Amino acid sequence: MGNVTIGGDAPVTVQSMTNTDTRNALETRNQINKLVQAGCEIIRVAVPDLEAARALPQIKKGLDIPLVADIHFDYRLALASLEAGVEGLRINPGNIGGADKVAAVVKEAKRRNTPIRIGVNAGSLEKDLATGGAVTPEAMVQSAVRHIAMLEKMDFYDIKVSLKASDVPLMLEAYRLLAGRVDYPLHIGVTEAGTLFRGSIKSAVGIGILLWEGIGDTVRVSLTGDPVHEVRAAYEILKSLGLRQRGVEIISCPTCGRTQIDLITIAGEVEERLAALDKPLKVAVMGCVVNGPGEAKHADVGIAGGKGEGLIFRKGKVIRKVKEEFLVEELIKEIDQIIGGRNL
């Protein structure tokens, strides 16, 4: 997809979706730029009408990551998006018109070597597949296989598939079943996961389990709010499984009665100060000197609190002692030296 390889031995890619009005190209592109800075590797935009489709060339101009058009109901929007040069389409072949309209989209996508993601969603499953109104993993897989067959009959195979649900067990079983039936790359995620706190937890459980089982080639963490949080949460999931290394991994203790510094405030400030850093780095923020350097000796750099003061350490070795009010600044200085290749 554009300059990004999905599937096979390629790294699991991180994607997100804008929540701006796509017709406002400037606002949409500004949000995309923030997402790219956070590490987003594929970006999807909603294309609800032709005005939005006409904004795509301006949104795409100078963009270094693939742009995916999200299409529903009107095949002409897919054709207009392809003409605008998008690198991918997300469609549900069953809701953009009859076979002739699907064929028109597939023909143009094939001519342009543009992949199509078949997006099956538990909330909008075909009525004939919902037994008594209930959605089952088998029904979701049947929907996906039906749509895959539709494209394969048209000699089209540049396909990704997603089977999203807000119910984690349903989503897990659907992906497991489909992974046993097809070799197409799978885009995984828990849809409508919720707000930042709850949605991140649901996504970590659902996405994390699948990735640990070897299922999934590209991910999106769907959260209600700023999509930059989606990208950061996705990388945290990938980092926790050892699948990707990007940005800072903060190791911080939960605090206890031994803690004599304002560890919660310090940890929050460190996380905020380092949020934009894209270098893989392990940073420890520990509450006491009893366990700090020892428990976090695998960290590249860290601090361990004392009474109104703390230690700066690297790889478990104490570098110096500083007052509490200077801990964050001294830690940042040490990180700057590491990033700059000095004092290694």
From TrEMBL:
Which keywords appear in this protein's UniProt record, sorted alphabetically?
4Fe-4S, Iron, Iron-sulfur, Isoprene biosynthesis, Metal-binding, Oxidoreductase
Q: Which Gene3D superfamilies match?
A: Dihydropteroate synthase-like, Sulfite Reductase Hemoprotein, domain 1
State the EC number(s). Answer: 1.17.7.3
Pathway the protein acts in: Isoprenoid biosynthesis; isopentenyl diphosphate biosynthesis via DXP pathway; isopentenyl diphosphate from 1-deoxy-D-xylulose 5-phosphate: step 5/6
| Single GO term (MF) | 4-hydroxy-3-methylbut-2-enyl-diphosphate synthase activity (flavodoxin)
Describe how the cofactor binds.
Binds 1 [4Fe-4S] cluster.
**What cofactors are annotated for this protein?**
[4Fe-4S] cluster
Q: Tell me which positions the record assigns to the signal sequence.
A: none
EC primary class? oxidoreductase
Q: What Gene Ontology biological process does one annotation of this record name?
A: isopentenyl diphosphate biosynthetic process, methylerythritol 4-phosphate pathway
Tell me what reaction this enzyme catalyses: (2E)-4-hydroxy-3-methylbut-2-enyl diphosphate + oxidized [flavodoxin] + H2O + 2 H(+) = 2-C-methyl-D-erythritol 2,4-cyclic diphosphate + reduced [flavodoxin]
Domain annotation IspG C-terminal: ranges = 249-336
Q: Which residues form the IspG TIM-barrel domain?
A: 1-235
Positions annotated to bind [4Fe-4S] cluster? C253, C256, C288, E295
Matching entries from Pfam families are given as: GcpE, GcpE_C
Function statement: Converts 2C-methyl-D-erythritol 2,4-cyclodiphosphate (ME-2,4cPP) into 1-hydroxy-2-methyl-2-(E)-butenyl 4-diphosphate.
Q: Which PANTHER family match?
A: 4-HYDROXY-3-METHYLBUT-2-EN-1-YL DIPHOSPHATE SYNTHASE, 4-HYDROXY-3-METHYLBUT-2-EN-1-YL DIPHOSPHATE SYNTHASE (FERREDOXIN), CHLOROPLASTIC
User: Could you say which protein family the record assigns here?
Assistant: Belongs to the IspG family.
Protein name from the UniProt record: 4-hydroxy-3-methylbut-2-en-1-yl diphosphate synthase (flavodoxin)
| Protein source organism | Desulfotruncus arcticus DSM 17038
